[in-house]
Amino acid sequence: MFFGLNAIECYFAILVLFSAMFLIVPRRFCWIQIVIAVVLFSVLAYHLEPNQSDDLSRYFTQLDYLREYGYEYFRRCIDDNVNGSNWGTFRVCGYYFYFMSKFPMNNWMPAITVFIGYGLSFSTIYKAANKFSVSRLYLYLACLFFLSTYWYYDIYSGIRNGLAFAVVTACAYEHLIERRFIPLCYVGYILASLMHSTGVMLVVLVLVAEFTVFVNGKYINYLFIFGLIGGGTIMSYLSARSSNDFIDSVAERASSHQAGTGLYTDTNFLVNIAVMVAAAVIIYFFYVFILENNDGLLLKRFYSFSTFVIYFMIGCLYSPLIFMRLARWVIPVVGAMFLSIGLQSKKDFIENNDLSYVKFFAPTKLVMRVNLQVFVTVFIVIFSIVHLWYSLTGSSLIWMHFPEEVEDFIYEY
Length: 413
Prior knowledge:
The chain is an all-alpha fold. The chain has helices at 7-24, 31-47, 55-80, 91-100, 108-131, 136-149, 152-158, 160-178, 182-193, 198-211, 217-225, 227-240, 245-259, 267-292, 296-315, 320-329, 331-352, 355-361, 364-393, 406-412. Helix 6 (136-149) crosses helix 19 (364-393). The longest helix is centred in the last third of the chain and has 30 residues, at 364-393. The radius of gyration is 22 Å and the shape is globular. The protein starts with 6 loop residues before the first helix and ends with a helix.
């Protein structure tokens, strides 16, 4: 325990500290509490103990082997697929594990993974807020949405998926909005795809957004509802006509997801659906204000990418693993970005226009949003708070514990 607090109480204390600092730190220094939060989340991850059923427990065993037998064992994992590592195909994953084995303690891997995942996600949200001159309050509300909907324990225990998605999302921001470091962004896409197979599908969505920017996105959105089926069919076709291990592995994963397992009705899955709906409301409601403030062109590619993700998720409702991964690691960042920019654009629009004139002469969709803007803002804030409560009491966070808590943890759960 730290200062008499258990693991979940430490997590909540970080959130309280983060929120308190937003009240006293000026806007231009808001990066300070973000850096502090990322570091504290990483320190917390270092001191946690994974459960026996977590992937991380298996990864710790791999790290022990790598540490004991060295590079020779690592080469066997690549060449002979020892212990089913599949590092011969996903080599970035293999090298990431090999690098982590050089640290004296296994706990460094989840700590560094959390640092990278939260660091990239927060950095994306903060850079977007700076680019569009978002106020301190709206930046905080965006961070609240992100922190309440991003699944901390899942990136801690799963490592590969969350890391791959964080890299692709951060690269997508630089690529589609900032329009800089594009060659490095493509390197990031390749690294993420070679970290975990699910990174490939997110990269495809980014590339479609890039190359169809002047195409009517509405029809592409509809196509992405069937994206999993179509993508699985294409990958199966390519796999049958090639001998490439990477294509074969992606095709195998796509086929397994394509088969589906039925529509889940457990609480966690329904909550993830609610997060997707909340993000869709944020994007579609506030994007009209963003367009009115002439920022729409800057966001057009990323807006297309975000809507592609949502429609693709609709098509993945019967493949819950993909759906939940997107809802837990991509949607929180995308939703937070559009929430901060949208709230600021809404405020600027209302301050710069005569609302009585707008309500009589503006397009219907804009008038409707002006009339509903207070209700939608309050709804999103309440949703973030309620989801935060759920995260602390019903999500995977309840499995989080320190080593010395293990006896009480087993007794309670």
